[in-house]
């Protein structure tokens, strides 16, 4: 199937950070947050990036697991002290690609199809569950001040 066929078949919608998604699971079980709210224990989505689509730098307050399904390898970039950390989700384990990756809570990260053109279909699971109230899209100038050593990836994965 093409990316557009998958988007239609899975009923994916545009995501604010880039790409397409659809929530597929939200636990009925909840837990309290430090701010006095509640969150589902876990949530899951399908997520698809194609061609030049990017998941722009963002962070959330929960751990997020990414699982590769099909398509091209997906590059995930995490900002940390020192140099950015690069993970590749994909089917070629011999080339160092991974079938799943963990993004720790509070870490800035972004993603893009590694070899374009093409697409990558993944799933993401968040625990405690995802809530847009916990979602923060990065501002370029803020990240450049905090991570000057990563200026090239900050500029590539932030909106001007």
Could you explain the architecture of this structure?
The protein has 160 residues and is mainly beta. The strands form 3 sheets. Strands 1-2-5-12-7-10 form a 6-stranded antiparallel sheet, with no helix packed on it. Strands 9-8-11-6-13 form a 5-stranded antiparallel sheet, with no helix packed on it. A two-stranded antiparallel sheet has the order 3-4. 12% of the residues lie in helices and 42% in strands. It is globular and about 45 Å long. It is built from 3 helices and 13 strands; from the N terminus they run αβββββββββββββαα. It has helices at residues 3-9, 140-146, 151-156, and strands at residues 13-14, 20-26, 30-32, 38-40, 43-50, 54-59, 63-71, 74-78, 85-89, 100-103, 109-113, 119-127, 136-137. The protein has a single domain (3-133), classed as Jelly Rolls (Sandwich). A hairpin with a 5-residue loop joins strand 3 (30-32) and strand 4.
Percentage of residues assigned to helices: 10-25%
Number of domains: 1
Average residue-wise pLDDT: 95
Second-tier CATH architecture = Sandwich
Specify the oligomeric state. single chain
Structure summary, number of beta strands: 13
Order of helices and strands: HEEEEEEEEEEEEEHH
CATH topology assignment? Jelly Rolls
* Major sheet characteristics: 6 strands, antiparallel
> How many individual helices?
3
- Distance from N terminus to C terminus (CA atoms, Å) equals 33 Å
- CATH class reads Mainly Beta
Sheet/helix structural class: mainly beta
Q: How large is the share of residues in beta strands?
A: 35-45%
Low-pLDDT segments, ≥5 res: none
The largest beta-sheet arranges its strands as 1-2-5-12-7-10
Radius of gyration: 16 Å
Coarse shape: globular
What is the CATH superfamily classification?
Answer: Jelly Rolls
């Amino acid at each position: 199937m093409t990316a557009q066929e998958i988007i239609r078949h899975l009923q994916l919608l545009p995501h604010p950070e880039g790409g397409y998604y659809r929530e597929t699971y939200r636990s009925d079980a909840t837990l309290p947050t430090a701010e006095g709210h509640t969150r589902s224990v876990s949530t899951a989505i399908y997520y698809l990036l194609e061609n030049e689509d990017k998941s722009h730098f963002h962070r959330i307050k929960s751990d997020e697991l990414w699982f590769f399904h099909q398509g091209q390898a997906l590059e995930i970039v995490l900002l940390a002290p020192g140099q950015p950390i690069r993970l590749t989700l994909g089917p070629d384990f011999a080339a160092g690609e991974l079938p799943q990756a963990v993004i720790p809570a509070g870490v800035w990260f972004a993603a893009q199809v590694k070899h374009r053109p093409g697409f990558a279909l993944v799933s993401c699971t968040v625990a405690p569950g995802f809530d847009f109230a916990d979602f923060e899209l990065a501002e370029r100038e803020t990240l450049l001040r905090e991570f000057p050593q990563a200026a090239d990836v900050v500029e590539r994965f932030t909106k001007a």
